[in-house]
Amino acid sequence: MTLSPVPRIRETKLSTLLERLEDCETPLVIEQAIRHWPAVQSWNVATLSAKLGSLEVAYKCSPNHQHPNFHLSSLGEMFAREQGPFDGFLRQITTGADAERARRLFTGDEQFVIRRRQGRSEVNEALVPLLSDVPLSELMPEDRFYSVWAWFSGKGVRTWLHYDNNACHNLNAQLTGEKHCMLFHPDDLSELEPFLVGGSNPAHNCSRIDVESVEGDHQQWRSLRRWETTLRAGDLLFIPAWWWHSFLHLGELNCNVNVWWKPLRERSSATSKRQAFIDAVARTGEKFKADTAEAALLQKLDLELVRPSATAARGY
């Protein structure tokens, strides 16, 4: 495996940062760029509980620290959620045994912060109390802005290896805590083994590889290019469109906001071309059941995009 550190720069002029990032082909850490944000200075269990209090929220729940946990036997178990007051959720992820704290994770899948669709922006009123401490206008290109998510987790959470399927650049703002970040190039799709279209798992932007269990004895894993870094409170991590990533959450309380926006220029890669096929299948509106001739054909076509030599090798 080729292992590289994610490059790091110091930049305090956020007004021109997004322009610079358009020409950046690999991930980049902008050190302490948002250390002045009130959230970085003041967010903790007490202040967040005061802001959102008993707001009823849904959040991911896994039997262990992996989110999703693709070792489980059913989709219902893999994508299970619980619901409860936000202050209670904060207590669950910051008190007790580490193994228990890592079982829960709040992301924008449950509640977005801001999103822009068809030229119109929408703010989630329930999470407005957070916005006064997070001056997102410094990071949002108004004409190409796509969405903002918030993330809250305790120590030990592992997000499964995946890519963002929205064709957007991603700027991850670490507000509290730390994350170890592992990233892979979108042209290394053939070694990353995504769940295939037509199969039983609809998480087509996720890898079948468990990064915690295969390193060292997985032949394809050994041939991969990998970038790594640790993101600390006040840092920004730029993830170019289509890059694969998996994070291990290290802080006692990890708070992040992610800003996604559409690139000025499309970046063609093995992953982006494969996602175009997935999107085309989705636009048909057809529901293809697993273990049918139609599903088998979709898997064959998807496999040809993922691993162009694999269909011939397997006798299709």
Give the secondary structure arrangement, pairings included.
Elements: E1 2-5, E2 8-10, H1 17-21, E3 28-31, H2 38-42, H3 45-52, E4 56-61, E5 66-67, H4 75-78, E6 81-85, H5 86-94, H6 98-101, E7 104-106, E8 114-117, E9 120-123, H7 128-131, E10 145-153, E11 158-159, E12 162-163, E13 169-176, E14 178-184, H8 189-192, H9 219-222, E15 225-232, E16 236-239, E17 244-249, E18 254-261, H10 270-283, H11 293-306, H12 310-313
Parallel strand pairs: 1-15, 2-3, 5-11
Antiparallel strand pairs: 3-16, 4-6, 4-7, 7-10, 8-9, 8-10, 10-18, 12-17, 13-16, 13-18, 14-15, 14-17
Helix pairs in contact: 3-5
Give a concise summary:
This protein is of the alpha+beta class and 316 residues long. Helices cover 25% and strands 28% of the residues.
Description of the molecule:
It is a single chain. By secondary structure, this protein is of the alpha+beta class. The chain has helices at residues 17-21, 38-42, 45-52, 75-78, 86-94, 98-101, 128-131, 189-192, 219-222, 270-283, 293-306, 310-313, and strands at 2-5, 8-10, 28-31, 56-61, 66-67, 81-85, 104-106, 114-117, 120-123, 145-153, 158-159, 162-163, 169-176, 178-184, 225-232, 236-239, 244-249, 254-261. Helix 3 runs antiparallel to helix 5 (86-94). The chain is globular and about 55 Å long. The two termini are 30 Å apart. The model is unreliable at 311-316 (pLDDT under 50).
DSSP, total strands: 18
What shape does the CA trace take? Answer: globular
Mean pLDDT, nearest integer? 92
Share of helix, binned: 25-40%
Query: Compute the gyration radius: what is it?
Result: 20 Å
CA-CA gap between termini:
30 Å
Percentage of β-strand residues: 25-35%
Low-confidence region ranges: 311-316
- One letter per element, helices H and strands E, the order comes to EEHEHHEEHEHHEEEHEEEEEHHEEEEHHH
| Major beta sheet summary | 11 strands, mixed
Counting DSSP H or I runs of 4 or more residues, the number of helices is 12
Structural class: alpha+beta
